[in-house]
Each structure stands twice: as C-alpha cells, then as structure tokens.
User: Which sequence fits this backbone?
C-alpha cells in the first residue's frame, strides 16, 4: 500500500525497526549517517537500499529538514556503497520513491541501488 509522504514520521515502520536492530537485515555498509542493506525482494541482480539514520519519511522531508551534515553524509554514503561494490564501471541506477504515485511503501527515506544487468528504460511503458 503506497504511503502518504506528507504524514509525520512513524517510528513503527520496518526500516526504523532495522535501525533499532529489532529485526535483522543483510547489512553491506554503515556509518554515522547511513545504513545500507540488501533489498528483501531484489528487482535486479544487485539491489541494495541505503537509508539515513535520521527520522525522515521521504526525500521531500529529508531535503527540506535535514541538517547539511546529514545530507552530505547520506549522499556520500550512497556513492560510497555503489563504488565499493564495483558498480561504477558497468553503471547503476538510483531510485527514490516519494509518496503515492511513486508507490513508496516504506515511510522512511530509502534510495534503491540497482545494478548487475541492463536496466532498461527509466519508467515502465504506459
Ligand atoms: P519502496 O516501494 O520504494 O518503498 O520500496 C520498499 C522496498 O523495501 C521494497 O523494494 C521492499 O522489497 C523492501 N523491503 C521491505 N521490507 C524489507 C526488509 N525487511 N528488508 C529489506 N528490504 C525490505
């Protein structure tokens, strides 16, 4: 069920539980600002999610409210995770879904990293 990205942050979301270590994840990277882990239902041979450690519903919330240090730390973490996985040469795709039309399902900002195959057109044909 897509979420309404204008709603306040909900601490019961699944990624908040992963950050609190209440449920496990297949971690690939962690630093002060970000956690990266494998998507539970991969849509490409390489499908990793990167999330900020702060309480942000979406890219909208994050870009409007996060301190500059958190934004810089998170953006650098996304690049680092892709670089460390060796994805730059062949290429990769970043995706952040925001709200209903984008089918955002988890109300904690996450950036998808897709790689490992030809990724096709940016959007499904209409
Ligand atoms: P989105 O539609 O952008 O909100 O994507 C949410 C993503 O979170 C989907 O690709 C799910 O497969 C993924 N996901 C949901 N629960 C988990 C989990 N416990 N661990 C890892 N990935 C998850």
Assistant:
């Amino acid at each position: 069920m897509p979420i309404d990205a204008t709603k306040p942050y909900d601490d019961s979301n699944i990624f908040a539980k992963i950050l609190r270590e209440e449920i496990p994840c297949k971690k690939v990277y962690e630093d002060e600002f970000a956690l990266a882990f494998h998507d539970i239902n991969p849509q490409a041979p390489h499908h990793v999610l990167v999330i900020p450690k702060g309480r942000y519903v979406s890219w909208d919330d994050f870009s409007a409210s996060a301190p500059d240090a958190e934004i810089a730390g998170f953006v650098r973490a996304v690049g680092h995770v892709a670089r460390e996985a060796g994805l730059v040469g062949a290429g990769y795709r970043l995706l952040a879904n925001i709200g209903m039309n984008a089918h955002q399902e988890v109300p904690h900002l996450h950036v998808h990293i897709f790689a490992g195959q030809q990724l096709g057109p940016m959007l499904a044909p209409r």
